Amino acid sequence: MGSAASKGWTITGASNDNLLLMRPLNTDAVQAVVGEPISREAVEVATDFYKRLGGVTVVTSAAVIASKLMGSVVRIDYTNSYRDELNFSLGTLQRSWNRHRLRIAVGSGPFVK
Fold first, then answer.
1. Which of 8, 72, 9, 4 is nearest to 38 (CA)?
2. 11-29 pLDDT tens trace
3. Fewest 10 Å CB contacts: which of 77, 82, 88, 107?
4. Does some domain include residue 43?
C-alpha cells in the first residue's frame, strides 16, 4: 500500500480481503471516451484476496470512473486495457511477499478502515 501511495494512488477502501485504489486521469482523454464534458475522472483498481488452501488467490480489475457535469457517473471496465500493468503489479507484490513475508506478517495487523 505504501508503494501505491508513493506512485500517486489514493487508497479509497481497504479491508482484510480487498483493496480499492484510485488515481486521477487526463480529462481530455476520458472526455473523448465518454463523449461529453466531465467534471472528474480517475482510474480505479480493485483487488480482492481469496484465502485458499496453501495460499491466496488475488483478483484485480480496473475501471475508468467519470463524473459528468450533470451529476451522473460513468464506469467503464478497463481491466483488459490495464492487464499488463495489473500483471506487473501482481508479480511485484508476489516477489515482495516471498522476500519479506515473515516481517510483513508479524509487523502488520489487519488493515480495516
1. 72
2. 888 888 888 888 887 777 6
3. 107
4. yes
